[in-house]
Predict the 3D structure of the following.
Amino acid sequence: MHPLVSSLPFCVIAGPCSIESYEVLTQVARTIQDLGVTALRGGIYKMRTNPESFQGLGESAYSIVAQVKQELGLSLVSEVTDVRQIKGLSEVADVLQVGTRNMYNYELLKELGKQEKPVLLKRGLSAYLEEWLQAANYVIQGGNSRVMLCERGIRTFERETRNTLDLAAVPILKSKVNYPILVDPSHGTGRKDLVLPMALAAAAAGADGLLIEVHPNPEKALSDGAQALDLFELEDLMKRLRTLLPALGRRLSDPGIPFFSSL
């Protein structure tokens, strides 16, 4: 195996951009459980550029998440947008995600450094790799070494995609740090037709896993429907990963045993 290719089991984290209802979350959660997806993602709090856009259910989503987790035993990755959310969110989320707009929120990162929950740190919209690593250091120096990095695309002059997915960042970071490196092709492209090819390319580049947006009916999603796979498209992606990964000398992580549990 090439030294920059991960030996970790390959993790797939999938779910809706925003948690909208018990019914939608349950439908997605049951599907990803059947497909062997590692963990569930779902936004409880959402930072949106347009103040008129759906901002998430907030605290009212906690009971929905608790019920779904109790029924299915899945782990949840969810974004924290403010230090005041950490205590309540930590009771229902297994991994706390820092979104692109908060990569430079150093007070939030310092507070997350005091927590025991793993932190998934997304790259800032226009961040250099060194700036991203320095942001991770804020969490680590606070005492929390359970950090994962997620490439989610950067802003360039190209307008065909929502962002430009920088897959070169994966092997570069692999040569510098030992943190798990994930890739989000949903936000990275903003186009559902590009999610599958870029997801497979991320695996080939040596990423440790994927963050994928999935919705039963993307056309009716309250946020980011244009980049969300439907449940059948997710099934196709998982089938292709099961074919590709062994060719790379790798395997999918076991269902229900997220690799971040050992961080």
